[in-house]
Amino acid sequence: MIEVKNSVITRDVINNAYTYEEYREMIDKLLEEGKTTGENHSDAMIHYTKMNVHRMNRIDKRTGLSEEVIEKLETVDRQMIWLVLTEAWCGDAAQSVPVINKMAEASENIHLRLILRDENLEIMDQFLFRGKSRSVPKLIMLDAETLEVLADWGARPAEAQELVDTMTGSENMAKQEVAEHLHKWYADDNAQQIQKEIAALI
To answer: Strand locations in 89-173, DSSP E?
Structure first.
């Protein structure tokens, strides 16, 4: 069990959260209105969101789970809720959330729900990256009956984080260039590391 002080993950939070299908439909509807999630609807944020829809579509259609991970998911013998903090404009979320969805679908005992970070900062602030960053996506594994926090993961696989740490340590590396290298890493990895890391937490 992971101790969370003054937990604000309530039954209402879970009941009002999105399913994966609802999350995708919500993003599509916002884009039709020239918006994305959150308050920043700039051209850049809309552009990121459109790119992320393409990424999620590709992963939905082409990415499969490894046999080892499927076998591990089939052994889950307790009802779990996987609660994910996310945002439509986040590139890491676009790379990871569809994979998390596939993993949840592989087990009849895992129920995926998604909430937006900026609408749930009280929850986000209990799961800060390195104790200071509101990085998403953040997966929180909960016991479905008690809402006890069992484990958490995010915001990106360890190898990807190491790559980002190395690149951002370089004075000459622009943010856009870091993002390009990061998304190339995701493409080359083909969702293998995220599967392994999350499966290891079960």
So the answer is: 110-116, 138-143, 149-154
Assigned token pair, 119? 């609408």
Confirm if 2 and 52 have CB atoms less than 8 A apart: no
Q: Which fold has domain 11-201?
A: Glutaredoxin (3.40.30)
> Which of 28, 37, 47 is CA-nearest to residue 137?
37
* d(C-alpha 93, C-alpha 184), whole Å: 15
Count Cβ atoms below 10 Å from residue 193 Cβ, excluding itself. Answer: 17
Instruction: Identify which has the larger pLDDT, 1 or 200.
Output: 200
pLDDT tens-digit series, residues 23-70: 999 999 999 999 999 999 999 999 999 999 999 999 999 999 999 999
And the tokens for 114?
């998604």
What tokens were used for 157? 């696989």
The pLDDT of 84-107, averaged and rounded, is 98
- Which residues on adjacent β-strands are paired with residue 129? 133
Longest dimension (CA), the chain: 50
- Give how far Cα 146 sits from Cα of 47, 107, 120, 150, Å: 40, 19, 20, 11
Peptide bond preceding 137: is omega within 30 degrees of 0, i.e. cis? Answer: yes
Answer positive or negative: Cα dihedral of 184, 57, 29, 122: negative
Q: What does the pLDDT read at residue 1?
A: 52
Answer whether 197's CB lies under 8 Å from 159's CB: no
